[in-house]
Write a structure and sequence with these properties.
The structure holds two protein chains of two kinds. Chain A is 33% helix and 14% strand. By secondary structure, chain A is of the alpha/beta class. In chain A, a hairpin with a 5-residue loop joins β7 and β8. The longest helix of chain A has 14 residues. By secondary structure, chain B is an alpha/beta fold. Chain B folds into three domains: 162 residues, Aconitase, domain 3; 93 residues, Aconitase, Domain 2 (3-Layer(aba) Sandwich), CATH 3.40.1060.10; 180 residues, Aconitase, domain 3 (2-Layer Sandwich), CATH 3.30.499. Chain B is built from 15 helices and 19 strands. In chain B, the strands form five sheets. Chain B has a five-stranded parallel β-sheet with strand order 5-4-3-6-7. In chain B, α6 packs parallel to α8. Classes of the chains: A alpha/beta, B alpha/beta. The interface between A and B is large, with 59 and 85 residues.
Chain lengths: 197, 476
């Protein structure tokens, strides 16, 4: 994972709530065996509609997306995070995220920033004309108009994002603890080992 | 004596390998189900980093999402290749990756093949009190057996393959208590649709939900799997039903379940998992069975639920302004007008299947309604897709396939089918489908498809009349 500590730039003012994973990337795009090239399918159903923010030249190449409640609900497809990253999006700001999407975003260095609806409303307004600045170190979202919104983030996730930590590599450092757990279970709950069908 | 604990806390605590100062835990994963869509990039990641699968014995792979549900073998018993080259490539990747990493693989032509969430319980791979993951959000399903089961993304699939663990933060706990007794024609699917309507699509976010109460206790395992399956549709990453004698009777003798003395030890352990009497949930929601009717969705979020006796809602009546806008968009997409009775909505397509409703009990419920009847002429496409080869075999032994075929429905091979629009089974743009699946998202069953989520019995009733129908009209 590439380290990420801040994102600054234009933001797509989408604002929709319950943006599900089928909206972010339809299932027809899940047949790939690669992580790349999914940007072409990102938000396909929304892009078919006249006046959508993704095809508006005012927001071309924006690194930030602003959305409504429950962003990323639905499927566990990490393709949603890959598609957004491929589209050039580095951060999403919304009042809430589905648990699985939020995890997938984190694993790909895509910031999922939670702010209250009032802040979202204000940022939707600012995004029409100006840039937005997300700073992970200070955990703030700011605008050129002195707006300053603080956000919470899990300290472990913050550490991993800023340092670009390879999480599997990190966990493998606990291999001895995992082995000890496995030994304990095979002694006390041997029935947990599945019969091979 | 230790503090009273919920079922969720007991399972969580039994799986902590390490706990960090910030509260994040390294959690051991007992069972990992792998399918063809969310795993290729994970195996590729292992290859690039030179890593092995830590516990292939705890991992089981089966293809389901891409497979066409038409015949898989020709008259000579040879494989019929998948026409779509991308689907074929994804299937080949799993066929190659499973043996390369030493993982058991159930082939597309094996009678045991089926939807991962049907196969796991059916084989006794999924057990109470275990942690179960799969790169699929409906993994919550296995919670119906009392397992802590949840969907993960591909990076987490790779993490579990390499380490048999996940770095997780503890969720909040919620109890959804369903009291009373279900009325005639009201099934587990109606219960979970109703719960989703009450909680909303994000009502369970950040929580693990335990479903309790007389209604849940009275359900079969099939019914409990249906309920827990859709925990994700109200935002909960996992659902749970405490294991009991119904669970043990279902699991005993299944191929991968414990045997002999191991079985007795397992049951003794499972009995200790029930939520302690004085344990406290972070949130409690109580629902009365008397309020649950045969249910149907009208919009493009699973929270858009109505009793079949209802009328299409007027968006202006919603209190939340963002919900008003969303409802209007949904109605435009669905081609519906406010005030229209739900039973006036005609349907051209019927789908009975998916990890939510493709088990033997689901097929029996649909067949009971369809027996001796015919589908309506305006129903152009009606398919019944069993959840596994074993469900198919059982249904055929009971003669259910004849009932479906005689009624004018197609009897298919097992797979995810028309639930998600990534195999040939799709609903044409602009057409409606009464579907026993779990999501009515825009384009879910194919671009422009309009989905109404219902129970198997309700889908059968809609097939007969060609419109959304109160199944109670077909009951004595």
């Amino acid at each position: 994972m590439q380290p990420i500590s801040s994102v600054k730039g234009k933001a797509y003012p989408l604002g929709l709530k319950n943006v599900d994973t089928d909206i972010i990337i339809p299932a027809a795009w899940l047949k790939t065996i690669s992580r790349s090239g999914l940007g072409k399918g990102a938000f396909q159903t929304l892009r078919g509609v006249a006046g959508n923010v993704f095809d508006d030249p005012a927001y071309a190449g924006a690194p930030i997306l602003i959305a409504g409640d429950n962003f990323g609900c639905g499927s566990s497809r990490e393709h949603a995070a890959w598609a957004m990253a491929d589209l050039g999006i580095s951060a999403v700001i919304a009042p809430s995220f589905s648990d699985i999407f939020s995890g997938n975003a984190f694993k790909n260095g895509l910031l999922a920033i939670v702010l209250p609806q009032e802040a979202i409303d204000r940022l939707m307004d600012v995004a029409k004309t100006d840039e937005i600045h997300i700073d992970l170190e200070t955990q703030t979202v700011t605008t050129p108009f002195q707006d300053r919104f603080a956000f919470e983030i899990d300290p472990f996730r913050k550490h991993c994002l800023i340092n670009g930590v390879d999480e599997i590599g990190l966990t493998l450092k606990s291999s001895d603890a995992i082995s000890a757990y496995e030994n304990k279970i095979s002694a006390s709950q041997s029935w947990l080992s599945p019969n091979q069908a | 004596m230790s503090a009273p604990q919920t079922l969720y806390e007991k399972i969580w605590n039994a799986h902590v390998v390490e706990q960090r100062d910030d509260g994040t835990c390294l959690i051991f994963i007992d069972r990992h189900l792998v399918h063809e869509v969310t795993s290729p990039q994970a195996f590729e990641g292992l290859r690039v980093a030179g890593r092995q699968v830590r516990r292939p014995d705890l991992t089981l792979a089966v293809p389901d999402h891409n497979l066409p549900t038409t015949a898989r073998l020709d008259a000579n018993g040879n494989n019929i290749p998948i026409a779509d080259p991308e689907s074929a490539q994804q299937l080949e990747a799993l066929e190659r990756n499973a043996p390369e990493f030493g993982i058991s693989y159930i082939d597309a032509t094996d009678v045991k093949q089926g939807i991962v969430h049907v196969v796991g319980p059916e084989q006794g791979f999924s057990l109470p009190g275990t942690t179960i993951v799969c790169g699929d959000s409906h993994t919550a399903c296995h919670g119906g057996l009392g397992a802590l089961a949840f969907g993960i993304g591909t990076s987490e699939v790779e993490h579990v393959l390499a380490t048999q663990t996940l770095q997780l933060s503890r969720s909040k706990s919620m109890e959804v208590r369903v009291e009373g007794e279900l009325g005639p024609g009201v099934s587990a699917k109606d219960v979970v649709l109703h719960i989703t309507g009450v909680l909303g699509a994000s009502g369970g976010t950040g929580h693990v939900i335990e479903y309790t109460g007389a209604v849940i206790r009275a359900l079969s395992i099939e019914g409990r799997l249906t309920i827990s399956n859709m925990a994700i549709e109200h935002g909960a990453r996992a659902g749970l039903v405490a294991p009991d004698d119904v669970t043990y009777a279902y699991l005993k003798g299944r191929p991968m379940a414990p045997k002999g003395g191991d079985w007795d030890a397992a049951v003794a352990y499972w009995r200790s998992l029930a939520t302690d009497i004085d344990a406290v949930y972070d949130k409690v929601v109580t629902i009365s069975a008397a309020d649950i009717a045969p249910s149907v969705t009208w919009g493009t979020s699973p929270e858009d639920v109505l009793p079949i006796t209802g009328v299409v809602p007027d968006p202006s009546t919603f209190a939340d302004p963002s919900k008003q806008a969303a409802a209007q968009k949904s109605l435009d997409y669905m081609g519906l007008t406010p005030g229209m009775p739900m039973t006036d909505i005609s349907v051209e397509n019927i789908f009975i299947g998916s990890c939510t409703n493709s088990r033997i009990e689901d097929l029996r419920a649909a067949a009971a309604v369809l027996k001796g009847r015919k589908k309506a002429d305006n129903v152009k496409w009606a398919i019944v897709v069993p959840g596994s080869g074993l469900v198919k075999q059982q249904a055929e032994a009971e003669g259910l396939d004849r009932i479906f075929i005689d009624a004018g429905l197609e009897w298919r091979e097992p797979g995810c089918s028309a639930c998600l629009g990534m195999n040939p089974d799709k609903v044409p743009a602009g057409e409606r489908c009464a579907s026993t699946s779990n999501r009515n998202f825009v384009g879910r069953q194919g671009p422009g498809a309009r989905t109404h989520l219902v129970s198997p019995a309700m889908a059968a009733a809609a097939a007969i009349t060609g419109r959304l129908t109160d199944v109670r009209a077909f009951m004595d």
